[in-house]
Design a protein that fits this description.
- This is Thermosome subunit alpha.
- InterPro entries: Chaperone_TCP-1, Chaperonin_TCP-1_CS, Cpn60/GroEL/TCP-1, GroEL-like_apical_dom_sf, GROEL-like_equatorial_sf, TCP-1-like_intermed_sf, TCP-1_chaperonin, thermosome_alpha.
- Belongs to the TCP-1 chaperonin family.
- One of its GO terms (molecular function) is ATP hydrolysis activity.
- Keywords: ATP-binding, Chaperone, Nucleotide-binding.
- With 545 residues, this protein is an alpha+beta fold.
- The chain has three domains: 263 residues, GroEL-like equatorial domain (GROEL, domain 1, Orthogonal Bundle); 99 residues, TCP-1-like chaperonin intermediate domain (GROEL, domain 2); 125 residues, GroEL (3-Layer(bba) Sandwich).
- Helix content is 46%, strand content 18%.
- Strands 9, 10, 11, 12, 13, 14 and 15 form a seven-stranded mixed beta sheet that branches. It has a three-stranded antiparallel beta sheet with strand order 6-17-20.
- The radius of gyration is 30 Å and the shape is elongated.
């Protein structure tokens, strides 16, 4: 970057810095973004393929989940990193639709490229895209179906759709039932759903069908002492946030002991204090004890003698879940403990799951926290099952909160494309072309679904368009026959928020990338961008020259 001054060039950037300006910068950024979309495109839909990602340590991840793929890929190009952000946002907001959001952003940029070739200014394209996105939100609202919390069948279908293509096909029915039941248990009074209250434990061994839902909490620990009871029915549970140990004095104190009797008295006193703590717990009527901190060996002995099932060093998050599940209170002082603070559960027992001993707190009256144990033949199967379950829980949770659904299978996208083209004809000026380009971009979703199912893209798109023109608003792609079918009848439904969030974030990122006309890359440090515009780490030989 140099300016002429009296014949001497003046350099204002450090030597070795790279600057890409104008169309070159746009071209490079759009190519990088399209490459990211291309990387996840084949995973879209129930017939999508999986990716195997191997990191530098040789660890393997096999997944179909857009956001997982992009997080694991070592992406270096700055525009490509923005695409990864879309997937992360989509995952945080709704938990599903990450691949759709990225593919949509890639297609918006691809369509914009054609407009840039026609000398249409990026600002005009951006304005058109924003107008089209706003119009899309309006159109989508008119396509919704409402769902009620008691509508078991629809909620199951939402879980089905979220899990489709995630390798859990074989046991989808059982898993969907679990997801709906789990979410229904943890809904708060105000209708919000925090899926953190659903514990998902993964255990290798058995098959997918051995997975189970526990109406309570499962803690990955075994009882503290072998002479404690292995199971307690009609459990009264004390939850303690203090250590059952003798506290050291705050001040350095020296105690001079002159005779063995004094030492013995000292030890006796310590024992008496620990015994007193245990007696307080017994007196409250508790027969199960969970402690967040440590427990002295002697106290363990007294607790075992009293027949109290005990765990120590229980995680804070688990303590909160136990309180929600059993209706107990977490207490910070042993002296204050009373029977009103105790939680209740029908059964607390230690069980062996695959090779580990775990504590099951179940049969709670109205558990506001539940657990799901996922089983599978290999680590990779269980991990992918966990991702599928995570998506299903989040999406059912969103449906509980918003109570609004739309059809899946590419139906809303085809309808949007149709209605946006009609809207474009009412807009004057060059923005009309940008709105039409946005409408074309929408159709990438049904096209990709068809392609991944091994169907002809053009035939299926023409069939879908004509079904929508005849007024079948919910017509989407039947993956098995390739024919347009009413998706609501097929049971392919998604929460409205999955679609609106994907369109919003894809539009925002596409507009942001389009508005960049200058990339200035410093030489030193990690920002050197791998010889930009030449390449993007981990993209399998994509070449951006």
């Amino acid at each position: 970057m140099a300016g002429q001054f009296g014949g001497t060039p003046i350099y204002i950037l450090r030597e070795g810095s790279q600057r890409t300006a104008g169309r070159d910068a746009q071209r490079s950024n759009i190519m990088a973004a399209k490459a990211v979309a291309g990387a996840v495109r084949t995973t879209l839909g129930p017939k999508g393929m999986d990716k195997m990602l191997v990191d530098t340590m040789g660890d393997v991840v096999i997944t179909n989940d857009g956001v997982t793929i992009l997080k694991e890929m070592d992406i270096e190009h700055p525009a490509a990193k923005m695409m990864v952000e879309i997937a992360k946002t989509q995952d945080q907001e709704v938990g599903d639709g990450t691949t759709s959001a990225v593919v949509l952003a890639g297609e918006l940029l691809k369509q914009a490229e054609g407009l840039l070739e026609q000398e249409i200014h990026p600002t005009i394209i951006a304005a058109g895209y924003r107008a089209a996105a706003d119009k899309s939100m309006e159109i989508l609202k008119g396509l919704t179906v409402s769902v009620l919390a008691k509508d078991e069948d629809l909620l199951m279908k939402i879980a089905f759709t979220a899990m489709a293509g995630k390798g859990s096909q074989s046991a989808r029915d059982e898993l969907a039932v679990m997801a709906v039941e789990a979410v229904r248990s943890v809904v708060d009074e105000d209708g919000t759903v925090d899926t953190d209250n659903i514990t998902v434990e993964k255990k290798v061994g058995g098959g997918i069908t051995d997975s189970l839902l526990v109406s309570g909490v499962v803690i990955d620990k075994d009882r503290l002492h072998p002479s404690m009871p292995k199971s307690v029915t009609d459990a009264k549970i004390a939850l303690l946030n203090v250590a059952m140990e003798i506290e050291k004095t705050e001040v350095d104190a020296k105690i001079q002991i002159t005779s063995p009797d004094q030492l013995q008295a000292f030890l006796d006193q310590e024992e008496k204090m620990l015994k007193g703590m245990v007696d307080k717990i017994v007196a409250s009527g508790a027969n199960v004890l969970f402690v967040q901190k440590g427990i002295d060996d002697l106290a363990q002995h007294f607790l075992a003698k009293a027949g109290i099932y005990t765990l120590r060093r229980v995680k804070k998050s688990d303590m909160e879940k136990l309180a929600r599940a059993t209706g107990g209170k977490v207490i910070t002082s042993i002296h204050e403990i009373s029977k009103d603070d105790l939680g209740k559960a029908g059964l607390v027992e230690e069980r062996k799951v695959s090779d580990d001993k775990m504590t099951f707190v179940q049969q709670c009256d109205n558990p506001k926290s539940v657990s799901i144990i996922l089983r599978g033949g290999t680590v990779h199967v269980v991990d992918e099952l966990d991702r599928a379950m995570e998506d299903a829980l989040r999406v059912v949770g969103v449906a509980f909160e918003d109570k609004m659904l739309v059809a899946g299978g590419g139906a809303p996208e085809v309808e949007l494309a149709l209605r946006l083209r009609a809207y474009a004809s009412t807009v004057s000026g060059r923005e009309q072309l940008a709105i039409e380009a946005f409408a074309d971009a929408m159709e990438v979703i049904p096209k990709t679904l068809a392609e991944n199912a091994g169907l002809d893209q053009i035939d299926t798109l023409v069939a879908l368009r004509s079904a929508h023109e005849k007024g079948m608003k919910g017509a989407g792609l039947d993956m098995d026959t390739g024919k347009p079918v009413e998706m609501l009848k097929l049971g392919v439904v998604e929460p409205l928020r999955v679609k609106t969030q994907a369109i919003k974030s894809a539009t925002e990122v596409a507009v942001m990338i389009l508005r960049i006309d200058d990339v200035i890359a410093s030489k030193s440090g990690p920002g050197a961008m791998g010889g930009m515009p030449g390449g993007m780490g981990g993209m399998g030989g994509e070449d951006f020259e």
